[in-house]
Amino acid sequence: MNVETSTLNDEETGSSRLPRSKDEYFGAFSPVKQYAFASVLVVLAALIAVNVVSSRVERAIVVSRLETEALEPAKVSTFRIVETISRSTNPNGEMNLMIPNDTSETDRIVLDALVGQQVARVDILDRFGKIVYSTDHFYIGDASGYASGPVEATSTYVGSAAVSGLDGHAALIEAVITRVPVYREGSVPSHDSHETTVVMYRDVTAAIDAATAAGARFRFWMLIGVMAVVFSSLMIVAIRGHRAQTEARLQLEELLDHEHLLVSELDRRNADLKTADEERLRLLSVVTHELGNPLASISAFIGMLSKNKEGNLSEREMSMVRAIGRGDSQMRLLLKDLLDLSRVEANELDLIVAPVKLSDIVDGVAESMAPVVAQKSQTITVKHSDDLVELDGDRIRLDQVVTNLVSNASKYSPEHTEIKIFVSGDDACYNIDVIDQGIGISIED
Q: Which domain holds residue 182?
């Protein structure tokens, strides 16, 4: 029988090797380090995004607070300015605002009312929205932007604005504009009832810068703290992960070393099996060859005894000679099987294909096996049609197959039984059925 061997062979060299090397299992940049590096980048990006968003939100909160805080001082300063100007121009006390022709007097009143406040510019409007006074005299008489003002006091952040301040110097500031309308006494606030409107440009640059700087410092230290915690956590995770990976690497190296040993052992055993198989084939060849020589001598002497030319053998002795001849025939069949087996395993069995009739084969087997089955008082019956066509086949091998089937049928059937051989079929398929009364073959086999 063939012994199948299995090895892990390299396609080019044919040598046994491991499917993968250790270097293929372990990269220089481990998954733990990759995870830690990626986590740091993600956390850093998230913190930067949070920092940007929070700075914008913080600025919006600061601006809203400055708008609210600027409104009440603006109202107080407005009524103080209006009251002072009205008293100086209308001694009777009526609220009938008239701006003095001498702007220096109005400048003094405005400066006195705004002492300690970060006001960069003041405009006083008449009831129609025209600027009748401004700390920047360039705008006196201008009505643009003020014609449709609100009927209530408002405070609005306008961002960067170029202003010529109360000190006479022009500057670019971040401004909150307050608009405070003043109504005649007893009138209902409306666009038609207000006496004047005072507009103030408050310089909130310093306040916003201070708040932004404080927020930036807070966010910076918060970022440092969070990053310190994150880095510490990631370092712990990385150290533990590296330790676990190192242990796993050592275990895998042990497994790979063990696999090397197993593969080496498998190669050795495969080599031993191959050697044993070759030895078995050689032994089989030698045995079949050596058995042929004595069988040839035995056959020759049996032939001479069977002729009984001198007539000195009794019928009983001739029966013994015939029994020896049948044994010789069986030995030759066994030897033939051994030869065929050795040829099959050596891939040296050649089929001689030629036209052959199955009827001739089964008739010949029945005739040659008749003496054998007669020993058990058995009979062989052959049934086939006379018009069987010739087929392409190896007569010797087909004869061998049918002979083996009949031999087994005789061997495993009781005495005084019948062995039947049926040949049936058509041009597409033929069946040879050997039927006996023996123990049979189980369905699972």
A: 47-203
